[in-house]
């Protein structure tokens, strides 16, 4: 296979057509950069982290930097809706539930108030009146982020990719990147071609470290298999959007070690999605293999939670699908240049909460690859914060 001639060197190659790589490519092509988006699987696919019909969007975060970033994200999502002439967001509100004194619960409330996000703290009686399907225990409280809602994930991904092509970008799917050679011009070898570009963005989700190996870097990433569970309403429609049932996020309720969250019924009539914000570690290429050792058993945790907190649902899952998280130790993203190669940019570690922020993630990765300094403070996203965890792969 011969490399392309000098005249066909791209401005940028983006590896990975999940939501982060696709949004990066979209912003690049809007800036008139000649961009190639490479994806190992034929599109659309359900082997990574960006598939499925819905994701939660919200401004409620304990870290104010996410709350602030979300202000621009809402504008960019609205712009995408206009450009694609597609509805991608439905406002439902997000009900945050937690022990009154839980530090994360309290700092999330403070972040909403300090940033003047429309929100409301609810007394126990109000919760019962407004959400009769939700039963809190004594000592637990709730508040609403009114800005929150559901993003239509599959539709959004398609819209971003279509617009990228419309603005002049090229997608090559079914082409796995097998080698990256750094340099002032980066050379990328796939299963069917060799491409060159002035800069490279790696947005490979759970496969990031597999690609980083040839670039001498191993990031502290953990890839988790997530069971996406749907539960049947005992009375059809009782947890639906028409009944004003919101998305919810529970902070360590029922002594659960991780968050439990849910979305009103949408994908499957009569079923609502309720999931555990953690899973078992997997190799992304072997996601569907039976685990060799028994790990986290989250379905019984969810069943117990549902019987106590959402008693209008049957306490056995009706449908289970799969997805993957790529977690960093602090669950903040990685948005940075490769420490040794300034024209190679990494976007990774979205830790199960990156979809809503993808318009800004794509903008930041685009700016980094164009050699521009993004407006937003990148300190929380630097690779350097993991100095003690970094492994050289050379
Ligand atoms: C169950 C679940 C629920 C979630 N809920 C929410 C939510 O409510 N709100 C929210 O904001 N976020 C949520 N998230 C997180 C969000 O979906 C992810 O952060 C986001 O989708 C990550 O996108 P990505 O582009 O980084 O990864 P991916 O979507 O995995 O994309 C990476 C792509 O790179 C490709 N690739 C990898 N290696 C190669 C290679 N060698 N050559 C070519 N291509 C390659 C892969 O095939 C893949 O398509 C959830 C995630 C899951 C799994
Ligand atoms: O990003 C979110 O809003 C959700 C919260 C709960 C876990 C999954 N992701």
Automatic annotation (TrEMBL):
GO CC, sorted alphabetically, is: peroxisome
Q: Which InterPro entries match?
A: FAD-dep_OxRdtase (IPR006076), FAD/NAD-bd_sf (IPR036188), MTOX (IPR045170)
Q: Which reaction does it catalyse?
A: sarcosine + O2 + H2O = formaldehyde + glycine + H2O2; L-pipecolate + O2 = L-1-piperideine-6-carboxylate + H2O2 + H(+)
Query: Is Flavoprotein given among the entry's keywords?
Result: yes
List GO BP terms, alphabetically. Answer: L-lysine catabolic process to acetyl-CoA via L-pipecolate
Task: Report domain FAD dependent oxidoreductase positions.
Answer: 11-368
Q: Which UniProt keywords apply?
A: FAD, Flavoprotein, Oxidoreductase
> What is a single Pfam family found in this protein's UniProt entry?
DAO
Q: Name one GO molecular function term.
A: sarcosine oxidase activity
Instruction: Report if keyword Oxidoreductase is assigned.
Output: yes
Known EC number(s)? 1.5.3.1, 1.5.3.7
This protein's cofactor list reads: FAD
Q: Which NCBIfam families match?
A: PRK11259.1, soxA_mon
Biological function: Metabolizes sarcosine, L-pipecolic acid and L-proline.
Into which family does the record put it? Belongs to the MSOX/MTOX family.
Protein name, per record: Peroxisomal sarcosine oxidase
Gene (name only): PIPOX
């Amino acid at each position: 296979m011969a490399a392309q001639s000098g005249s066909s060197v791209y401005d940028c190659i983006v590896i990975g057509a999940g939501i982060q790589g696709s949004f990066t490519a979209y912003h690049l092509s809007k800036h008139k950069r000649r961009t190639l988006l490479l994806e190992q699987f034929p599109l659309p696919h359900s082997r990574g982290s960006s598939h499925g019909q819905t994701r939660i969007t919200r401004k409620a975060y304990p870290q104010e930097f996410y709350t602030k970033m979300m202000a621009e994200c809402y504008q960019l999502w609205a712009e995408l809706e206009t450009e694609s002439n597609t509805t991608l967001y439905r406002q439902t509100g997000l009900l945050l539930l937690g022990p009154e004194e839980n530090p994360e619960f309290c700092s999330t409330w403070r972040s909403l108030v300090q940033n003047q996000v429309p929100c409301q703290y609810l007394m126990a009686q109000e919760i019962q009146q407004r959400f009769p399907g939700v039963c809190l225990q004594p000592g637990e409280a709730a508040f609403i982020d009114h800005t929150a809602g559901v993003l239509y994930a599959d539709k959004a991904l398609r819209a971003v990719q279509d617009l990228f092509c419309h603005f002049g970008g090229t997608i090559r799917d079914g082409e796995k990147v097998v080698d990256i050679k750094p340099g002032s011009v980066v050379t990328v070898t796939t299963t069917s071609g060799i491409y060159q570009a002035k800069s490279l963005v790696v947005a490979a989700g759970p496969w990031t470290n597999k690609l980083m190996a040839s670039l001498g870097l191993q990031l502290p990433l953990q890839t988790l298999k997530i069971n996406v569970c749907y539960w049947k309403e005992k009375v059809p429609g009782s947890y639906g959007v028409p009944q004003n049932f919101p998305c919810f996020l529970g902070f360590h309720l029922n002594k659960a070690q991780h968050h439990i969250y849910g979305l009103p019924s949408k994908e499957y009539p009569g079923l609502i999605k309720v999931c555990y914000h953690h899973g078992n570690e997997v190799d992304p290429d072997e996601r569907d293999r039976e685990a060799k050792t028994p790990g986290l058993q989250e379905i019984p945790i969810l069943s117990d939670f549902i019987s106590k907190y959402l008693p209008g649902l049957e306490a056995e899952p009706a449908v289970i699908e799969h997805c993957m998280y790529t977690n960093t130790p602090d669950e903040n993203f990685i948005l940075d240049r490769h420490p040794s190669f300034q024209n190679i940019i990494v976007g990774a570690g979205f830790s199960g909460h990156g979809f809503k922020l993808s318009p800004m993630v794509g903008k930041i990765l685009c700016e980094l690859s164009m050699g521009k300094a993004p407006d937003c403070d990148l300190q929380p996203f630097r690779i350097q914060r993991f100095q003690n965890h970094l492994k050289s792969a050379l």
